[in-house]
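Before the break, one more example. Copy the sequence into your notebook; we will annotate it together after we see the structure.
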Amino acid sequence: MTEENRRALAEGFRDGTPIGLGYFVVSFTLGIVAKHAGLTPAQGFWMSFFNNASAGEYAALTVMMADAPYLEMIIITLVANLRYVLMSTVLSQKFSPTTPFYHRIFVGFDVTDEIFGISVARPGYLNPFYNYGAMLTALPGWSIGTALGIVAGNILPESAVSALGVALYGMFLAIIIPPAKKDKIIGVAVAISFALSFLAKNIFPDVSGGTRTIILTILIAGAVAILKPVKENSEEKNDA
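Here is what the structure looks like once it is written out:
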């Protein structure tokens, strides 16, 4: 390993440490939900290791608890994680043209919101070893946290497990409220999704929860993208 790669690895590890710690806390509550879905600690660990995405995993667990077929689980996970395709596309433009293809594949294995944020903020070309350093804390933090959440769910009394399960909703509120305060369109879309989800559950009780989630996600996101597309500012246009 060259000195440049060692330096990038160390910097990625440094910047990824707070991310890994945050992932550990959040994934612990996800493990509580995984426990309700019937997963063992080992299954929860590998689920989070290969699918490092809170929304995608929660959607998959919701489908599992509803006893929905595998096809619905595949579709809902794909829809929930689709944004990472866009993030990976952006990151691919940050690499030097001489970066080997296998580095692009390995970096794409763990593109999360937070790792994407620190990666795109790097000046100049992106050294893949920077991402590897961030992954060294992000992946273990998320995976171990999920497994320990399941272990805690198996040990703690049911009342405590139910209380910890509520923490996941707090996590989603923390994700929703800040962008909704900046852009009222997001807040309106979230409110509409709540209302339509409630109506769909009562109007179409025979349709599985996974199918309803897939349909509503595509319809609401598509409608907002068409009616209120994100406008590019002048700086972004000049960069393009």
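The longest helix spans residues 3-36. The mean pLDDT is 80. Try to locate both features in your own notes.
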